[in-house]
Amino acid sequence: MNYQLPLFEPEEAPPTVPEAVAELLYDEATEILVAFSGGKDSVAMVLYLLDLGIPKERIILHHHEVDGRGEHLFDWPCTPSYCKAFAAAFELPLVFSWREGGILREMYRTNEGLQDVRYEQQDGSAVVLASRPGSSTRRKFPAVAADLRTRWCSSVAKIDVLSRVIAHSYPEGGQLIICTGERREESPGRAAYKAYEKYRASTKKRTAIQWRPVIDFREKQVWALYEKYNVQPHPCYMLGWPRCSCQTCIFSSPNTWAAIQQIAPWKIDYMEAIENDLGHTLYHGMRIREKARRGRSFIPPDMLQRWKTEAIGEFTSPIFPDRWELPAGAFGAEMAGAV
Ligand code: SF4
Protein backbone atom coordinates (compact mmCIF):
# COMPACT_ATOMS: atom_id res chain seq x y z
CA MET A 1 0.00 0.00 0.00
CA ASN A 2 1.55 3.31 -1.06
CA TYR A 3 0.69 6.61 0.47
CA GLN A 4 1.86 9.81 -1.17
CA LEU A 5 2.59 12.45 1.38
CA PRO A 6 1.81 15.77 -0.30
CA LEU A 7 4.92 17.26 1.25
CA PHE A 8 7.42 15.61 -1.03
CA GLU A 9 8.93 17.09 -4.16
CA PRO A 10 7.96 15.23 -7.35
CA GLU A 11 11.48 13.82 -7.71
CA GLU A 12 11.53 12.43 -4.14
CA ALA A 13 10.37 8.93 -3.34
CA PRO A 14 7.49 9.22 -0.85
CA PRO A 15 7.50 6.98 2.20
CA THR A 16 5.49 3.81 2.01
CA VAL A 17 3.80 1.75 4.67
CA PRO A 18 5.40 -1.71 4.47
CA GLU A 19 2.92 -4.41 3.47
CA ALA A 20 3.29 -6.35 6.73
CA VAL A 21 2.69 -3.18 8.76
CA ALA A 22 -0.26 -2.08 6.60
CA GLU A 23 -2.06 -5.37 7.26
CA LEU A 24 -2.04 -4.65 10.98
CA LEU A 25 -2.33 -0.88 10.70
CA TYR A 26 -5.64 -0.98 8.85
CA ASP A 27 -7.04 -3.79 11.00
CA GLU A 28 -9.37 -2.20 13.55
CA ALA A 29 -8.39 -4.82 16.11
CA THR A 30 -4.84 -3.46 16.25
CA GLU A 31 -3.95 -0.92 18.91
CA ILE A 32 -1.42 1.72 17.86
CA LEU A 33 0.94 2.95 20.52
CA VAL A 34 3.16 5.96 19.80
CA ALA A 35 6.33 6.45 21.85
CA PHE A 36 5.76 10.16 22.36
CA SER A 37 8.69 12.21 23.63
CA GLY A 38 7.17 15.55 22.64
CA GLY A 39 10.05 16.01 20.19
CA LYS A 40 9.56 16.69 16.50
CA ASP A 41 9.76 13.13 15.23
CA SER A 42 7.20 11.88 17.73
CA VAL A 43 4.83 14.71 16.80
CA ALA A 44 5.42 13.97 13.10
CA MET A 45 4.54 10.31 13.69
CA VAL A 46 1.17 11.22 15.15
CA LEU A 47 0.41 13.68 12.35
CA TYR A 48 1.46 11.12 9.75
CA LEU A 49 -0.87 8.51 11.28
CA LEU A 50 -3.72 11.03 11.09
CA ASP A 51 -2.72 11.79 7.48
CA LEU A 52 -2.94 8.07 6.76
CA GLY A 53 -6.54 8.16 7.96
CA ILE A 54 -5.99 6.20 11.17
CA PRO A 55 -8.86 7.04 13.56
CA LYS A 56 -7.76 8.83 16.74
CA GLU A 57 -9.60 6.25 18.81
CA ARG A 58 -6.96 3.66 17.89
CA ILE A 59 -3.95 5.79 18.83
CA ILE A 60 -2.48 6.00 22.32
CA LEU A 61 0.54 8.09 23.30
CA HIS A 62 3.16 6.87 25.78
CA HIS A 63 5.65 9.25 27.36
CA HIS A 64 8.62 8.31 29.59
CA GLU A 65 9.68 10.70 32.31
CA VAL A 66 13.44 10.24 32.40
CA ASP A 67 13.79 11.91 35.80
CA GLY A 68 11.26 9.52 37.29
CA ARG A 69 9.16 12.34 38.71
CA GLY A 70 12.12 13.74 40.62
CA GLU A 71 13.38 17.24 39.88
CA HIS A 72 13.99 17.88 36.19
CA LEU A 73 17.73 17.38 35.97
CA PHE A 74 17.84 15.59 32.61
CA ASP A 75 14.42 16.40 31.20
CA TRP A 76 13.11 19.71 29.97
CA PRO A 77 10.78 20.89 32.75
CA CYS A 78 8.10 21.84 30.21
CA THR A 79 8.03 18.48 28.42
CA PRO A 80 5.28 16.75 30.45
CA SER A 81 3.00 19.81 30.15
CA TYR A 82 3.78 20.09 26.42
CA CYS A 83 2.87 16.41 25.93
CA LYS A 84 -0.37 16.89 27.87
CA ALA A 85 -1.29 19.97 25.84
CA PHE A 86 -0.64 18.14 22.55
CA ALA A 87 -2.64 15.08 23.64
CA ALA A 88 -5.55 17.25 24.81
CA ALA A 89 -5.56 19.31 21.59
CA PHE A 90 -5.73 16.15 19.44
CA GLU A 91 -8.02 14.31 21.90
CA LEU A 92 -5.58 11.44 22.29
CA PRO A 93 -5.00 9.39 25.44
CA LEU A 94 -1.59 9.83 27.03
CA VAL A 95 0.10 7.40 29.42
CA PHE A 96 3.09 8.46 31.53
CA SER A 97 5.65 5.90 32.65
CA TRP A 98 8.95 6.16 34.48
CA ARG A 99 11.60 4.34 36.42
CA GLU A 100 11.68 5.35 40.07
CA GLY A 101 14.34 8.00 40.60
CA GLY A 102 15.07 8.17 36.86
CA ILE A 103 18.57 8.46 35.42
CA LEU A 104 19.94 10.23 38.51
CA ARG A 105 19.01 7.38 40.88
CA GLU A 106 20.53 4.85 38.51
CA MET A 107 23.75 6.88 38.34
CA TYR A 108 23.96 6.60 42.12
CA ARG A 109 23.04 2.89 42.27
CA THR A 110 24.98 1.33 45.17
CA ASN A 111 24.57 -2.33 46.17
CA GLU A 112 21.03 -2.65 44.88
CA GLY A 113 19.03 -3.66 41.82
CA LEU A 114 17.29 -1.54 39.24
CA GLN A 115 14.48 0.62 40.59
CA ASP A 116 10.84 -0.30 39.92
CA VAL A 117 8.92 0.91 36.88
CA ARG A 118 5.63 2.81 37.30
CA TYR A 119 2.98 3.90 34.89
CA GLU A 120 -0.23 5.82 35.15
CA GLN A 121 -3.33 4.21 33.75
CA GLN A 122 -5.77 6.34 31.85
CA ASP A 123 -7.99 6.64 34.93
CA GLY A 124 -5.06 8.23 36.76
CA SER A 125 -4.28 5.26 38.99
CA ALA A 126 -0.65 4.16 39.18
CA VAL A 127 0.72 0.66 38.60
CA VAL A 128 4.02 -0.47 40.08
CA LEU A 129 6.08 -3.07 38.21
CA ALA A 130 8.64 -4.40 40.64
CA SER A 131 12.18 -4.98 39.44
CA ARG A 132 14.29 -7.94 40.46
CA PRO A 133 16.33 -7.36 43.59
CA GLY A 134 20.06 -7.04 42.99
CA SER A 135 23.26 -5.85 44.56
CA SER A 136 25.27 -4.03 41.94
CA THR A 137 26.89 -0.64 42.00
CA ARG A 138 27.02 1.93 39.21
CA ARG A 139 28.11 5.35 40.60
CA LYS A 140 28.90 6.66 37.11
CA PHE A 141 27.48 8.84 34.38
CA PRO A 142 26.24 6.98 31.30
CA ALA A 143 28.98 6.57 28.70
CA VAL A 144 28.86 8.95 25.77
CA ALA A 145 28.78 6.07 23.29
CA ALA A 146 26.50 4.59 20.67
CA ASP A 147 26.50 1.20 22.41
CA LEU A 148 23.34 1.01 24.51
CA ARG A 149 25.03 -1.27 27.05
CA THR A 150 27.43 1.44 28.19
CA ARG A 151 25.18 4.35 27.29
CA TRP A 152 22.62 2.83 29.63
CA CYS A 153 20.42 5.92 30.16
CA SER A 154 18.33 5.21 27.04
CA SER A 155 17.55 1.64 28.01
CA VAL A 156 17.09 2.20 31.75
CA ALA A 157 14.89 5.30 31.44
CA LYS A 158 13.09 4.67 28.15
CA ILE A 159 13.44 1.44 26.16
CA ASP A 160 13.12 -1.06 29.04
CA VAL A 161 10.41 1.01 30.72
CA LEU A 162 8.22 0.87 27.62
CA SER A 163 8.65 -2.85 27.04
CA ARG A 164 7.77 -3.60 30.68
CA VAL A 165 4.67 -1.43 30.51
CA ILE A 166 3.59 -3.08 27.26
CA ALA A 167 4.19 -6.60 28.56
CA HIS A 168 2.09 -5.77 31.62
CA SER A 169 -0.72 -3.69 30.16
CA TYR A 170 -1.47 -5.23 26.77
CA PRO A 171 -3.26 -8.56 26.93
CA GLU A 172 -2.00 -11.76 25.38
CA GLY A 173 -3.97 -12.42 22.23
CA GLY A 174 -3.97 -8.76 21.17
CA GLN A 175 -2.37 -7.00 18.21
CA LEU A 176 -0.19 -4.01 18.72
CA ILE A 177 1.97 -1.66 16.66
CA ILE A 178 4.57 0.32 18.59
CA CYS A 179 5.60 3.40 16.63
CA THR A 180 9.00 4.90 17.39
CA GLY A 181 10.42 8.02 15.80
CA GLU A 182 13.96 7.28 14.63
CA ARG A 183 14.94 8.78 11.28
CA ARG A 184 17.81 7.56 9.11
CA GLU A 185 18.95 11.13 8.50
CA GLU A 186 19.81 11.58 12.20
CA SER A 187 22.91 9.39 12.47
CA PRO A 188 24.77 6.55 10.75
CA GLY A 189 23.52 4.22 13.51
CA ARG A 190 19.90 5.12 12.83
CA ALA A 191 20.45 4.91 9.06
CA ALA A 192 20.89 1.16 9.51
CA TYR A 193 17.62 0.62 11.44
CA LYS A 194 14.90 -1.50 9.89
CA ALA A 195 11.60 0.18 9.01
CA TYR A 196 9.83 -2.41 11.16
CA GLU A 197 10.64 -5.51 13.19
CA LYS A 198 9.18 -7.82 15.76
CA TYR A 199 8.90 -5.97 19.07
CA ARG A 200 10.76 -7.36 22.07
CA ALA A 201 7.52 -7.76 24.12
CA SER A 202 5.97 -9.85 21.35
CA THR A 203 4.94 -13.36 22.41
CA LYS A 204 3.33 -16.37 20.73
CA LYS A 205 -0.04 -14.95 21.79
CA ARG A 206 0.63 -11.24 21.43
CA THR A 207 1.52 -9.87 17.99
CA ALA A 208 3.57 -6.75 18.56
CA ILE A 209 5.65 -5.05 15.91
CA GLN A 210 7.81 -1.99 16.19
CA TRP A 211 7.32 0.33 13.24
CA ARG A 212 9.38 3.42 12.50
CA PRO A 213 6.89 5.43 10.43
CA VAL A 214 9.16 8.42 9.79
CA ILE A 215 12.39 6.49 9.26
CA ASP A 216 12.78 7.83 5.72
CA PHE A 217 11.43 11.32 6.35
CA ARG A 218 13.74 14.25 5.80
CA GLU A 219 13.61 17.03 8.36
CA LYS A 220 11.79 19.33 5.94
CA GLN A 221 8.91 16.86 5.79
CA VAL A 222 8.72 16.79 9.56
CA TRP A 223 8.36 20.58 9.74
CA ALA A 224 5.96 20.56 6.79
CA LEU A 225 3.66 18.29 8.81
CA TYR A 226 3.83 20.69 11.76
CA GLU A 227 2.93 23.55 9.47
CA LYS A 228 0.15 21.63 7.78
CA TYR A 229 -1.50 20.87 11.13
CA ASN A 230 -0.46 24.25 12.60
CA VAL A 231 1.21 22.64 15.62
CA GLN A 232 3.34 24.66 18.01
CA PRO A 233 6.76 22.97 18.36
CA HIS A 234 8.23 22.24 21.80
CA PRO A 235 9.84 25.41 23.30
CA CYS A 236 13.36 23.96 23.00
CA TYR A 237 13.14 24.20 19.19
CA MET A 238 12.04 27.82 19.47
CA LEU A 239 15.18 28.50 21.55
CA GLY A 240 17.40 26.96 18.86
CA TRP A 241 17.83 23.33 19.90
CA PRO A 242 17.79 21.13 16.77
CA ARG A 243 16.88 18.03 18.82
CA CYS A 244 14.53 17.69 21.74
CA SER A 245 15.64 14.83 23.91
CA CYS A 246 16.87 15.25 27.44
CA GLN A 247 17.72 18.91 28.04
CA THR A 248 21.05 17.81 29.51
CA CYS A 249 21.62 15.02 27.00
CA ILE A 250 25.07 13.52 27.44
CA PHE A 251 25.70 14.00 23.69
CA SER A 252 25.36 17.78 23.95
CA SER A 253 28.05 19.89 22.30
CA PRO A 254 29.88 22.71 24.10
CA ASN A 255 27.53 25.22 22.43
CA THR A 256 24.52 23.29 23.74
CA TRP A 257 25.98 23.20 27.26
CA ALA A 258 26.59 26.95 26.99
CA ALA A 259 22.93 27.40 26.03
CA ILE A 260 21.90 25.28 29.04
CA GLN A 261 24.14 27.44 31.22
CA GLN A 262 22.34 30.50 29.89
CA ILE A 263 18.80 29.36 30.71
CA ALA A 264 19.30 26.89 33.56
CA PRO A 265 22.65 27.52 35.28
CA TRP A 266 21.56 25.39 38.24
CA LYS A 267 21.81 22.32 36.01
CA ILE A 268 25.50 22.93 35.39
CA ASP A 269 25.98 23.44 39.15
CA TYR A 270 24.11 20.20 39.83
CA MET A 271 26.08 18.19 37.26
CA GLU A 272 29.30 19.59 38.66
CA ALA A 273 28.25 18.58 42.18
CA ILE A 274 27.56 15.05 40.91
CA GLU A 275 31.00 14.92 39.28
CA ASN A 276 32.54 15.87 42.62
CA ASP A 277 30.37 13.41 44.53
CA LEU A 278 30.97 10.41 42.26
CA GLY A 279 34.57 11.26 41.45
CA HIS A 280 33.65 10.64 37.81
CA THR A 281 33.30 13.09 34.93
CA LEU A 282 30.79 12.80 32.12
CA TYR A 283 33.47 13.67 29.57
CA HIS A 284 36.79 11.92 30.07
CA GLY A 285 38.98 14.31 31.93
CA MET A 286 36.92 17.40 31.15
CA ARG A 287 34.63 18.92 33.76
CA ILE A 288 31.12 19.86 32.73
CA ARG A 289 31.74 23.53 33.54
CA GLU A 290 34.75 23.58 31.26
CA LYS A 291 32.74 21.95 28.47
CA ALA A 292 30.11 24.72 28.77
CA ARG A 293 32.79 27.41 28.98
CA ARG A 294 34.21 26.29 25.64
CA GLY A 295 30.91 26.80 23.86
CA ARG A 296 28.79 29.74 22.81
CA SER A 297 25.03 29.78 23.32
CA PHE A 298 23.03 29.73 20.11
CA ILE A 299 19.77 31.10 21.58
CA PRO A 300 18.51 34.12 19.60
CA PRO A 301 17.84 37.02 22.02
CA ASP A 302 14.21 37.53 20.91
CA MET A 303 13.48 33.82 21.34
CA LEU A 304 15.15 33.81 24.76
CA GLN A 305 12.79 36.50 25.90
CA ARG A 306 9.71 34.82 24.44
CA TRP A 307 10.37 31.15 25.33
CA LYS A 308 12.75 30.82 28.28
CA THR A 309 10.10 30.93 31.01
CA GLU A 310 8.02 28.20 29.38
CA ALA A 311 11.04 26.05 28.49
CA ILE A 312 12.23 25.88 32.08
CA GLY A 313 8.74 25.82 33.58
CA GLU A 314 5.27 24.88 32.34
CA PHE A 315 4.20 24.93 28.71
CA THR A 316 1.24 27.32 28.61
CA SER A 317 1.11 28.48 24.97
CA PRO A 318 -1.64 27.23 22.66
CA ILE A 319 -0.82 24.06 20.71
CA PHE A 320 -2.44 25.67 17.68
CA PRO A 321 -0.71 29.07 17.40
CA ASP A 322 -2.24 32.11 15.70
CA ARG A 323 0.71 32.24 13.33
CA TRP A 324 2.94 29.21 12.75
CA GLU A 325 6.67 29.90 12.48
CA LEU A 326 9.60 27.67 11.70
CA PRO A 327 11.58 27.34 14.95
CA ALA A 328 15.11 28.71 15.33
CA GLY A 329 16.38 25.15 15.84
CA ALA A 330 15.04 23.77 12.55
CA PHE A 331 17.74 22.30 10.32
CA GLY A 332 20.41 23.00 12.95
CA ALA A 333 23.46 20.77 13.21
CA GLU A 334 24.35 21.31 16.88
CA MET A 335 24.71 18.09 18.88
CA ALA A 336 21.84 17.91 21.36
CA GLY A 337 20.55 14.36 21.34
CA ALA A 338 21.36 10.68 21.16
CA VAL A 339 23.13 9.21 18.12
S1 SF4 B 1 18.47 11.81 25.39
FE1 SF4 B 1 20.65 11.64 25.87
S2 SF4 B 1 20.78 11.68 28.14
FE2 SF4 B 1 18.63 11.29 27.59
S3 SF4 B 1 18.41 9.09 27.62
FE3 SF4 B 1 18.92 9.62 25.51
S4 SF4 B 1 21.17 9.52 25.34
FE4 SF4 B 1 20.63 9.52 27.53
Fourth CATH level, the homologous superfamily of the largest domain: HUPs
**What share of the residues lie within helices?**
25-40%
The largest sheet has its strands arranged as 5-4-3-2-1-6-8-7
The succession of helices and strands, N to C, reads: HEHEHEHEEHEHEEHHHHHH
The major sheet is characterized as:
8 strands, mixed
User: Whole-number average pLDDT?
Assistant: 92
Question: Within the CATH hierarchy, at the fold level, what is the topology of the largest domain?
Answer: Rossmann fold
Per DSSP E runs of 2 or more residues, the count of β-strands stands at 8
Stretches where pLDDT falls below 50 for ≥5 residues? Answer: 1-5
Radius of gyration: 20 Å
Number of helical segments with 4 or more residues: 12
The end-to-end distance, rounded to whole angstroms, is 31 Å
**What would CATH call the architecture of the largest domain?**
3-Layer(aba) Sandwich
What features would you describe in this structure?
The protein has helices at 19-25, 40-51, 79-89, 102-107, 153-169, 188-191, 219-229, 235-239, 254-263, 265-278, 288-293, 301-311, and strands at 30-35, 59-64, 94-99, 117-120, 126-129, 175-179, 196-198, 207-211. An 8-stranded mixed β-sheet has the order 5-4-3-2-1-6-8-7. By secondary structure, the chain is α/β, with parallel strands linked by helices. Residues 1-5 have low confidence and may be disordered. The two termini are 31 Å apart. Helix 2 (40-51) links the parallel strand 1 (30-35) and strand 2. It has 2 domains: 19-220, HUPs (Rossmann fold), CATH 3.40.50; 233-311, no CATH class. It has 12 helices and 8 strands. It is globular. It binds iron/sulfur cluster. Iron/sulfur cluster binds next to helix 5.
